[in-house]
Amino acid sequence: QEEKKQLTLKVEELERKLESTNAQNIEFLQVIAKREESIHQCQLRLEEKSRECSSLARQLEMAIEDAKRQVEQARERAVSRERAAQSKMLDLETQLNRNKTELNQLRRSKEDAERRYESRLQDLRDRLEQSESTNRSMQNYVQFLKSSYDNVF
């Protein structure tokens, strides 16, 4: 009977321990359930953030591609403008050279014309002087003749 009593006490003690262990198991299961729920929520948020990141990455790639296109277009426009400016500069240089050549030709023509004019002017002066000299000679001769006729008559 004593043994039975001790066994009963042990059984009761083991049952209390079992209940305590069961209570702890229940608490652990609740903690595990809460943690699993938390993990599940975190996974859902992670998936949502991953989708968001993917979306943002696609938007970023599109923005980068768009920026690259715009930069390429701007570069092409700049190259085109530079070519046009170089072409215009070459045209202007050609026109300047042509104008310089024409100006030099005009200067030579002017100098030639001035030389011819000076030469003709000098010829005319010489002829005028010769004519005036001839005229003076003739006037002197006429004066001589007048004097001579006056003396004769």
Q: Your description of this structure?
A:
- The protein is mainly alpha-helical and 153 residues long.
- It has a domain at 1-89.
- The protein has one helix and no strands.
- The protein has one helix spanning 2-152.
- The radius of gyration is 63 Å and the shape is rod-shaped.
- It starts with a helix and ends with a helix.
- The relative contact order is 0.02.
List the helices and strands and how they pair.
Elements: H1 2-152
Protein name: Outer dense fiber protein 2
Keywords: Cell projection, Cilium, Coiled coil, Cytoplasm, Cytoskeleton, Developmental protein, Differentiation, Flagellum, Microtubule, Spermatogenesis
Biased composition (Polar residues): 94-106
How far the N terminus sits from the C terminus, by CA atoms, comes to 216 Å
Count of DSSP-assigned helices:
1
Please tally the β strands and state the result: 0
| Rg | 63 Å
* Quaternary state of the chains: single chain
* Series of H and E elements: H
Choose one word for the global shape: rod-shaped
Mean pLDDT: 95
| Major sheet | none
Biased composition (Polar residues): 94-106
Biased composition (Basic and acidic residues): 108-118
Protein name: Outer dense fiber protein 2
Subcellular location: Cell projection, Cilium, Flagellum; Cytoplasm, Cytoskeleton, Microtubule organizing center, Centrosome, Centriole; Cytoplasm, Cytoskeleton, Spindle pole
In short:
99% of the residues lie in helices and 0% in strands.
